[in-house]
Write a structure and sequence with these properties.
It is built from nine helices and twelve strands. By secondary structure, the chain is α+β, with helices and mostly antiparallel strands.
Length: 311
């Protein structure tokens, strides 16, 4: 996964790097009994994701399978088990669903809902920024998911364009680094994707602990990218050991956009999510209330008058 979508992760000391090992499943290959690969969708540090057919469900699914070089790695397996527990715990229309898992077999994996639609990151790369009439409804859906997570005592920690599937409705995916609020408050190392991490995620506990406000930051950074087509902060150096060089959001203010490109009525709610102090950010519900006002002010589409066809 290339920058800016590179997820922060602790390195695994091994040569060759087991995170680069692959299954090389072809169409029809059995991933697990009753679950057959169709095509590779992508991969992360520790997993590969395949579009697959599930005989029991009789439908397409996504199977997230641990890379072969990590099937005995305790940290990887514990992370997968944590994700499965999150999927079992959470139930919201904007969050992707889970349909079971096998944590003890030869190919540890979790079965996820297959969602129709491209990633937001793909849409932005191909077609450029979203217009307000698309941006605001998307924002409200993300607010709904983040508000629900906060109410359930969970922090997603990786809200970003590549984790948003633009279906109907848009869906927030990937709970692989999600934590309970209690777990998040105890974090002492960076978790998330560099370009979309809140300052407290970059340096947890210095001075602020990680909580639900981190997801609001992720929503704000995602909306900024979606509407303006660029980053809210400078590009950091992912290989730097200097925090301010790796995460410019620690020392920079967000770039204030031209009002002609981002009207104040939209800019203010988005930029408020990027306040350095988590206490200064709106809650997801407060952000949604501000954006509802923006939505009400947008011009309504007009239907052309239809004239009867003369015969």
């Amino acid at each position: 996964m290339s920058d800016p979508e590179r997820q922060t992760s602790s390195p695994v000391a091994a040569e060759p790097d087991p995170r680069e090992s692959r299954w090389h499943f072809e169409e029809g290959d059995e991933i697990a009994p009753g679950r057959s690969a169709i095509k590779l969708l992508g991969g992360g540090f520790r997993y590969e994701a395949y579009l697959a057919w599930d005989d029991h469900l009789l439908t397409l699914v996504v199977i997230k399978v641990v890379r072969p070089g990590l099937v005995e790695d305790r940290h990887t397996l514990e992370g997968l088990a944590d994700e499965v527990r999150m999927l079992e715990r959470l139930n919201h229309p904007v969050l992707a669903r889970g349909f079971g898992a096998d944590l003890d077999g030869e190919r540890p994996h979790v079965v996820l809902e297959h969602l129709e639609g491209p990633r937001l990151s793909t849409l932005l790369r191909k077609y450029g920024p979203l217009p307000p009439e698309q941006l605001i409804p998307l924002a409200l859906q993300l607010c709904a998911a983040v508000h629900y997570l906060a109410g359930e005592g969970v922090v997603h920690l990786d809200v970003k364009p590549s984790n948003v599937i633009m279906g109907g409705p848009p869906r927030l995916i990937d709970l692989s680094v999600a934590r309970t609020l209690e777990e998040a408050a105890k974090l002492r190392s960076a978790v998330g994707t560099d370009a979309y991490m809140s300052p407290e995620q970059c340096r947890p506990g210095e001075p602020a602990i990680v909580g639900s406000a981190a997801d609001v930051w992720g929503v704000g950074a995602t909306l900024y990218r979606a509407f303006l087509g660029g980053r809210a902060f400078s590009k950091g150096d992912p290989d730097s050991s200097v925090p301010a060089e790796r995460w410019p959001q620690l020392v920079e203010a967000p770039k204030v956009p031209d009002v002609n490109r981002l009207p104040e009525v939209i800019a203010h709610p988005i930029l408020s999510c990027l306040a350095p102090d988590p206490a200064d950010r709106p809650s997801a519900a407060e952000l949604a209330a501000q954006l509802e006002l923006v939505l009400d002010a947008l011009p309504r589409p007009k239907l052309s008058k239809l004239k009867p066809r003369l015969r």
